[in-house]
Every structure is written in C-alpha cells, then in structure tokens.
Amino acid sequence: MKKKLHYASYLLVMLLIFSGCKKDRNEDEPEKTDSNKEFFVSSATSGSFTKVQLQALAALQGFGSFLPLIQYDVDFYKITYQTTYKGSKINASGLLCIPKGMTTTPALLSAQHGTMFRDADAPSNFPNTFTGFELFASAGFITVIPDFIGYGVSKDIIHPYYDMQTSGLAVTDMLKAAKYYLKDKNIAVNNKLFLIGYSEGGYVTMAAQKEIETHTSHNLTLTAAAEGAGGYDVSGMLAKVATVPTYPDPSFFALFMMGYNSIYNYNHPLTDFFTQPYATNIPGLLDGSKTSDQINAALPAAPSALFNPTFYSSLSNPLAETNFKAQVAANSFPNWYPVSPTRLYHGTADQNVYYETSQSTFNRFKAAGSAQITLTSIPGGTHETSVTPMMLDALPWFKSLAQ
C-alpha cells in the first residue's frame, strides 16, 4: 500500500520524544536451543508505544475506523533472520510487534506490505515508517511484518518481485525466527497462525500460504489467510498490459523485469526489455532513494513506449519469450489451491492491479476444489482505497478464530 509518510514520521518521532519512550540498542540475544534456532540471527528494540499513541498514529494515517479495535500497548523489535535466496542463505529483516497486558494468549500473525521502492520504507525502520499492519498487534495479535528480500538488511539485493518461492520463504523463515525468539523470552503465543497482505503483500501472503500448506517440514499450521489485490495471475496481468494504452504505475514493470533478470540469471542488458533512455535510467531510479511517484514521473505511462518493441510485441505472441513466460506462469500458482480458510479482496475499480486477476484466480481455485475460499468485491474500490475495507473485514474474522 502506498502512504505519504514524511509528515507522519516526524509526528511519530515527536510522540516518542515527549512520551519518554526508550529505545535500547540491542537485546541480549537468546541462546539457540530449539528447532528454529538456525533462522534467528539478532534482535534490536524499536521502542514501545501506548494504546493512546497508536490511536493517534492510526488517526494520522487514515486508519481512524480502527480506533475501537486498538486495545493494547505494543513493544516493537527489529528482527534479523536467515532465509534463502538463489539457493544460498542470506540475512533478511522485519518488524516484530508484541502486544502488552493481554489476559488471553495471543495468536501469531504475519502481515505483508505492498510494493515499495524506498529503502527507508522497510517495516523494520519503524517508527520512521508505518504500514498500518502494526495496528494488528494493538488489536491483540503478535505480529511480524517482513521487510522482504531487497529491503532492510538485504537492501543490496535486487528485490525478487513476484517470485513465488523466495517470497514465501521470506515469510515462513521470519515466522520461525519469531517463534524461536518468543519461546526463548517466555512470551506466550497460542497455536493459531494468520496471514494477511495487500498489493504485492497479497501475492506474498498467498506464496507463504502455499509454502506452509505444501511443505509440512516448516511445522507451521495456518488458521486463515486474507489476501488483497495481489495480482496472483501474473500471466494474466502481463497479457492485459499488452492491450492497454496506458498504465498508471510503470515503476512496477521496471521492478518486475529487474527482479526477474537477476533471480533467474537472465543477465540481459536492460535494452532487451526497455527503450532508451529508460533502459539506462532504470537502475538509478530503483536505487532505493526514490518513491513510486518519482519513478512513475520519469517513465512513460504507455507500455508501448516503455518496452522494447520486440519485447512488447512478445507479450501478446504465445510463441515468443517462451522461457520468460513459463517462469511467469510458474509464479502464478499453477497446480495448487488453498486448503485453509481464505478470503480474497479486490476493488472493482482497481487500475493498478486488475480486478480480473483475483476473479480468474478465485474461479480456478474453486474449480480445482478449494472449499474454503471466498472473493469479496469492494464496489468502486481503487488500489489505494480498498486496503482499509479489507483490513476492517479481515481483523474481526481473525479475532473470531484466534482463541
């Protein structure tokens, strides 16, 4: 989800200063004694927020309808953990949010953020950035928010945008690191596990769900998942892009092709994908210092003007770029359907991630035998406006299943 954070970040810092909230450099790291020890690397405190501070933050960031659901003070920690990228172990990071003063044992929840471009927006940079999912902790869930590979401590890696396996592992491995940390610190958590995400986070949530449901070796059992506007049908998304005169977020294409060029070792010159001067400019645009709005302003809205003509024509030619399209299809959740209770959400007026990608995915899963999946359409909802309705629907649902 896209948020304008500079003003809110300043106010957040002021809240911290005037409340006397303390931040420790680093905690004593737990002894590595259980089955998840290989995933945990380190932790550092990011501060403690009271219920009142979190209510103020929610109001500032447009989540005022969440105020009745914000019930607990929350401690925040940056967690560094190990995950796998291109077959090798790397360090990744994310935010762990622990509610305080609960009289019942909380469930565990992993929340996945939307597409981002600035390194500063990684969730582990809290309180200098804010995704909105931090509020789930104040509603009574121990919440993890992975940065994803390419952000936080792994910012030197090109983000593997819409790669199913690395996306899923970034979530499951952080969950295991968090479970290890909680056990060592004697912080109680019950056996319920929830996943939620929006935009790219919706896709990553589904990737994590597939990883959990397919590989019992993770020792994770999913209770329910909520996935919003995730573009799960990546093949269908690209096919439609080839038919539209303009697209509002050309930055997505730049990130997508840079990621695939790296993770699949194409190692092609960017001129194979993009016209000049954009092929030359894109690496600098994706240097981690620019917002999506800044990147979009530097790229043409017309896909036909952005893409190399040969590559652009291949998007609508089934006999062209067959290797690339096979990898895109493999990342569109073929030969699988959700088993756990799953709710898909999508705004019907979304022009950034087309509503049809959720409808086609839902239809395919239902036809394959998914018995506990629903699709909630948000009438007139855009990509920007549909995240809050999704969260407001998913949170009470999760709470009804959490104990």
Topology (SSEs and partners):
Elements: H1 6-19, E1 40-49, H2 51-60, E2 74-85, E3 88-99, E4 107-112, H3 135-138, E5 141-146, H4 164-184, E6 193-198, H5 200-214, E7 224-228, H6 234-241, H7 250-263, H8 278-285, H9 292-297, H10 303-306, H11 309-314, H12 322-330, E8 342-347, H13 355-368, E9 373-378, H14 387-401
Parallel strand pairs: 4-5, 4-6, 6-7, 7-8, 8-9
Antiparallel strand pairs: 1-2, 2-3, 3-5
Helix pairs in contact: 4-5
Describe the protein in words.
Helix content is 37%, strand content 17%. By secondary structure, the chain is α/β, with parallel strands linked by helices. It has two domains: 293 residues, Rossmann fold; 79 residues, Orthogonal Bundle (434 Repressor (Amino-terminal Domain)), CATH 1.10.260. The chain is globular and about 60 Å long. The chain starts with 5 loop residues before the first helix and ends with a helix.
Name a few traits of the molecule.
403 residues; alpha/beta; Rossmann fold; 434 Repressor (Amino-terminal Domain); 2 domains; nine-stranded mixed sheet; 14 helices; globular
Describe what is shown at a glance.
The chain has 403 residues and is α/β, with parallel strands linked by helices.
Binned strand content? 15-25%
Q: What is the rounded Rg?
A: 20 Å
What class do helices, strands and sheet pairing give?
alpha/beta
CATH architecture of the largest domain: 3-Layer(aba) Sandwich
CATH-assigned fold name of the largest domain:
Rossmann fold
So how many helices? 14
